[in-house]
């Protein structure tokens, strides 16, 4: 067995939006302080005294990838041909249009070609691309492209079910609305049986959650 690793940021496209490398926490706290003033609050009152620092700290944590620096692949020549699905991955991101949270439930499937990906890494990849201002469609693309890059072929499918607070607490106020995005490559596009198996298992996982 051999082990290879890849970094998410090595994956294309390099031009896609992403977090700044370093955040000036003092400056962010200062801006939150100003925002509170503009919203008619008194940032000096007891409940708000530490809020700017707390919010700055949160932004810093949110925008820092959660240990997704590398993804491990294990070469296993005997393990080809089966469908592998990793579901139940739930990550929080922020909608870039409204700066409101969205919860993304991610299911990823692939067919190993002699290389299997360490299973826990799927969750790390999802966290990595969730930790920035996002739209669900781009997130789905980034996770899929990255997995294709790591796995080294196109036989990858990713389905994402999102709950967007910008739909439930503002605008149309649809509490029950769910947005589903899916990208399928390689055999998932051309083999109806494989594609159906992925969909059946994915919707089964969602129903169970
Ligand atoms: Zn939104």
Structure in words:
This protein has 209 residues and is α+β, with helices and mostly antiparallel strands. The chain folds into 2 domains: 25-62, no CATH class; 71-208, 2-Layer Sandwich (GTP Cyclohydrolase I, domain 2). The chain has 7 helices and 8 strands; from the N terminus they run βααββββαβαβαβαα. A 5-stranded mixed sheet has the order 6-3-4-7-8, with helices on both faces. A 3-stranded antiparallel sheet has the order 1-2-5. The protein is elongated. The site of zinc ion has 6 residues, from loops.
- Radius of gyration (CA) equals 20 Å
How much helical structure, as a percent, in the residues?
A: 25-40%
Strand order of the largest sheet: 6-3-4-7-8
- H/E topology pattern: EHHEEEEHEHEHEHH
According to DSSP, the number of beta strands is 8
Query: What gap, in angstroms, lies between the N and C termini?
Result: 35 Å
CATH homologous superfamily name of the largest domain?
Answer: GTP cyclohydrolase I, C-terminal domain/NADPH-dependent 7-cyano-7-deazaguanine reductase, N-terminal domain
Backbone structural class: alpha+beta
CATH class of the largest domain: Alpha Beta
Provide the residue-averaged pLDDT: 86
Question: Total helix count?
Answer: 7
| Residue windows where pLDDT falls under 50 for at least 5 positions | 1-5, 10-15
Quickly count the domains.
Answer: 2
């Amino acid at each position: 067995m051999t082990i290879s690793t890849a970094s998410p940021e090595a994956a294309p496209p390099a031009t896609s939006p992403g977090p700044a490398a370093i955040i000036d926490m003092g400056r962010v706290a200062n801006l939150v302080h100003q925002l509170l003033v503009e919203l008619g609050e008194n940032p000096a009152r007891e409940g708000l005294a530490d809020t700017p620092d707390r919010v700055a700290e949160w932004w810093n944590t949110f925008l820092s990838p959660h240990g997704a620096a590398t993804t491990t692949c294990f070469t296993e020549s005997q393990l080809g041909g089966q469908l592998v699905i990793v579901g139940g991955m739930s990550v929080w991101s922020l909608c870039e249009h409204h700066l409101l949270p969205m919860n993304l439930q991610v299911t990823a499937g692939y067919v190993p070609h002699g290389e299997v990906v360490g299973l826990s890494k799927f969750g790390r990849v999802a966290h990595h691309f969730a930790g920035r201002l996002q739209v669900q469609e781009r997130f789905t693309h980034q996770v899929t492209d990255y997995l294709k890059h790591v796995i080294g072929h196109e036989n990858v499918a990713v389905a994402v079910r999102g709950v967007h607070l910008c739909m439930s607490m503002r605008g149309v106020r649809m509490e029950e609305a769910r947005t589903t995005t899916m990208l399928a490559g390689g055999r998932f596009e051309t083999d109806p049986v494989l594609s159906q198996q992925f969909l059946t298992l994915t919707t089964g996982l969602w129903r169970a959650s």
